[in-house]
Design goal:
12 strands, N-terminal domain of TfIIb
Length: about 500
């Protein structure tokens, strides 16, 4: 993040300013609301003048007066490529100056989602985020993004959801501006920095006061964190149930399963917990590569390596770790009670083992617990698609983040229960609308209706669907503006009555 006390001008923004012949500057649009510069240098002052989004190099926009910024640029993508929402038409876009977001905006979710060529986003120091509650996927999958200027000035006192906020920002490395954030009321940080492969310094967020109820599993999945053990020490009380998933790397993350502490010593071929004295793992005595016995354990990186040849020895992969072996055997032991078996499953962190237990159909409770504890996405997908139990498939659907998998399951009308569960977790309003219009299953249509958040899409479905969906569609509209519009629509008198009753409640 850049210095926020002055206007940012990196190379891309200097080029932007040099091409600008329309406004006083890229930060001062004068009488205009938007400045768009195309690849041939053409200056445009209206989105209506843009023929192809793929030709846009730079955008400066005054967002005052815009009430809804949810999926703002992503929706422009879908408007141009409604049948190809996976395509990014902003393929040449390098920088955005986005200014003057007003306090009436409550959601910024998916605003810059999948702008995968953009390098710079600036102007954010002019945003009033006092009312914003949702920032999930705000910059997600901007894989070439290097600079976000002004983000440190955000007031996030009301924000509750930061799920995947920076997910997939592979080149974003400096998060120093986040040090001042007060995140104590945020309830979801799952995958917040997931895939930020250049993020390696946790210092700016080490002092964050995380809410006790906050979800932050996989928060740093695929990050090259250098000071992870310092992070564990600072957040230890909150990490007792999450330390093996927050970095999503079992070969490098080890904590004492007996007391939850991260104070360990390597001695005589054992990994010992200094707090409770338990043995956590036995190490091989010799390097499998060169045979040397000059082996060492790096507690900062949680790696066991050979000092002679440098080989990092993966002592946990493809095996039952020593400290999990007792729990593995307990689950298999016919003489041990079910409650103890379930408690033992909670201590197993190896997804390969949990996956095998998820298919042991001698106990639905064990399959359920194993599935709930799996973090590996590929295993969850296999369970959701292939498990013989609909109940277990539904549990897997709850944890799957890939909507392409969920949409595949949603189309499987042969299993209504699983299809409905998959639809519950789909956020693509256009796909849900497609289900409403095409599915012959009333329960599936009704669940799709419940999932749509964009009232314009609900009205689109209302215009194109058969009358059997009308009541449910009307019942899911709560906005006063759209309720008034319903009174003018060609719908049944009973549906109009529902809309009228909702409007009366607002007045009362």
């Amino acid at each position: 993040m850049e210095n926020e006390s002055k206007l940012l001008y990196n190379n891309d923004l200097k080029d932007f300013e040099n091409l600008n012949i329309t406004t006083p500057s890229i930060y001062n649009l004068g009488e205009y609301k938007v400045l768009i510069i195309l690849k041939d240098g053409t200056n445009l002052s209206s989105w209506d003048d843009v023929e192809y989004l793929r030709d846009i190099l730079y955008i400066s926009e005054d967002l005052s007066g815009v009430d809804n910024l949810s999926k703002y640029y992503y929706e422009k993508n879908k408007q141009n490529y409604s049948n190809f929402s996976h395509i990014n038409p902003f393929r040449k876009l390098k920088a955005i100056v986005a200014q003057n977001v007003e306090s009436k905006v409550t959601s910024l979710d998916y605003m810059f989602y999948k702008l995968d060529n953009i390098t710079t986003i600036t102007g954010l120091n002019s945003w009033d985020t006092n009312s914003v509650v949702d920032m999930r996927f705000l910059f997600a999958e901007c894989e070439n993004l290097e600079v976000i200027s002004g983000i440190g000035s955000f007031n996030i006192g009301n924000v509750r959801n930061m799920n995947s906020m920076f997910y997939g920002c592979e080149k974003l490395s400096n998060f120093s501006s986040l040090k001042s954030w007060d995140v104590k009321d945020v309830l979801d940080m799952d995958y917040m920095f997931g895939g930020c492969s250049s993020f390696n310094d946790l210092a700016p967020i080490l002092d964050w006061d995380i809410n006790d109820n906050c979800i932050f599993e996989n928060m740093f999945k695929y990050c090259s964190i250098e000071n992870r053990m310092t992070f564990y020490s600072n957040w230890q009380d909150k990490l007792l149930n999450s330390f093996t998933t927050i970095f999503y790397d079992l070969s490098k993350v080890v904590g004492c399963i007996y007391c939850g502490k991260f104070d360990m010593t390597c001695k005589d071929g054992h990994l010992l917990c200094n707090n409770c004295g338990e043995i956590l793992n036995y190490f091989p005595a010799n390097c499998p590569e060169c045979g040397s016995d000059n082996l060492c354990f790096d507690f900062e990186q949680m790696e066991y390596y050979c000092k002679n040849c440098g080989l990092v020895i993966d002592f946990m992969a493809e095996q039952v770790p020593y400290f999990e072996g007792a729990y593995f055997n307990a689950v298999l032991d016919e003489d041990i009670g079910l409650k103890t078996k379930l408690d033992a499953l909670d201590c197993i962190k190896n997804d390969k083992i949990l996956y095998s237990f998820a298919f042991r159909n001698d106990s639905i409770q064990i399959m359920k617990k194993a599935c709930e504890n799996i973090t590996n996405h590929d295993y969850l997908v296999k369970i959701a698609l292939n498990h013989p139990s609909s109940y277990i498939r539904c549990i897997a659907c709850e944890k799957i983040r890939d909507e392409s998998v969920l949409t595949e399951i949603a189309y499987d009308d042969s299993n209504e229960e699983v299809s409905i569960e998959a639809i519950r977790h789909i956020r693509d309003d256009d796909f849900l609308c497609e289900l409403i219009l095409n599915s012959e299953n009333e329960k599936i249509r009704n669940q799709a209706i419940k999932g749509i958040r964009n009232y314009e899409i609900l009205l689109k479905a209302l215009h194109n669907s058969n009358s059997t969906c009308e009541w449910s569609l009307v019942a899911n509209i709560e906005n006063k503006y759209y309720l008034k519009r319903l009174l003018k629509e060609d719908i049944s008198s009973s549906s109009k009555e529902i809309a009228l009753r909702k409007l009366i409640k607002y007045i009362q």
